[in-house]
């Protein structure tokens, strides 16, 4: 019997912020589907090594790399590592992100700048380095219909305003237009560019919200589908977007949010 081809067989993916949460979930899923994965981490080397071991234990290939996505040289190093280690690049997942919450009247320039650097400038730097590589590689029809795929992990807060998070919403709103503009500008090179905007996904970033009963209740009241999401909910969509099944999809944002963007307070 012919061995079944995995969905991302022989593809190479860079996943930023892949030592935890959504990035970890995407790295594991892409590894499971046959992609070689560059696991980028910022602070937690052991967690990144664990993701690598899990991918390898499932028969995949991975390499870890410490890099700050907001630094130009680090962003380039991420792409160079994919080329140096796996010989090419097919997929960039711009996932790394942080929150530095503050009431607007109290927000410091440092809090503003840190979030913009990581959540908006980082995705710009990584996308530019990846796109240059995709243009150089061109389309290889036996591998994929696209020259490359860029996927931005944005947030429902690219459309839902969020008091106390002006830096975060400004960055995610920026990511939304960056994604669309790149999709428009890079389509002629057959580079597909899309976004996934998660709702409430159970990770470190919102732990203070879901770990207490009251916070969990409030979160659930904002989710018509009645459950908090998991990293796998995002990873499944990311894998699909990176395959040729999604070849006609570019410039799209998929809201993976259990209906959070459906104005649930109008539901009664
Ligand atoms: P997380 O905190 O587990 O993951 C964020 C990752 O980014 C961490 O591994 C962190 O080390 C890494 N990181 C931070 N700064 C970095 C830098 N300068 N360079 C490289 N890596 C860096 O949280 P998460 O929920 O998995 O977040 C992943 C993405 O999903 C973020 O962009 C976040 O805004 C987005 N998101 C999350 C949710 C949610 O509910 N969890 C909802 C919407 C959007």
Biggest β-sheet description = 7 strands, parallel
Estimate percent helicity.
Answer: 40-55%
In whole angstroms, the N-to-C terminal distance is 54 Å
Would you tell me the structural class of the helices and strands?
Answer: alpha/beta
> Whole-number average pLDDT?
97
Q: CATH superfamily membership, which one? A: NAD(P)-binding Rossmann-like Domain
H/I helix tally: 8
Radius of gyration (Å): 18 Å
Describe the structure.
- The protein starts with 11 loop residues before the first strand and ends in a 12-residue tail after the last strand.
- Strand 1, helix 1 (21-32) and strand 2 form a beta-alpha-beta unit.
- The protein has a single domain, classed as 3-Layer(aba) Sandwich (Rossmann fold).
- The longest helix is centred in the middle third of the chain and has 29 residues, at 109-137.
- The chain contains eight helices and seven strands; from the N terminus they run E-H-E-H-E-H-E-H-E-H-E-H-H-H-E.
- The protein is α/β, with parallel strands linked by helices and 268 residues long.
- Nicotinamide-adenine-dinucleotide binds at residues 16-17, 19-23, 40-43, 68-70, 95-98, 118, 122, 153, 155, 198, 200-201, 203-206.
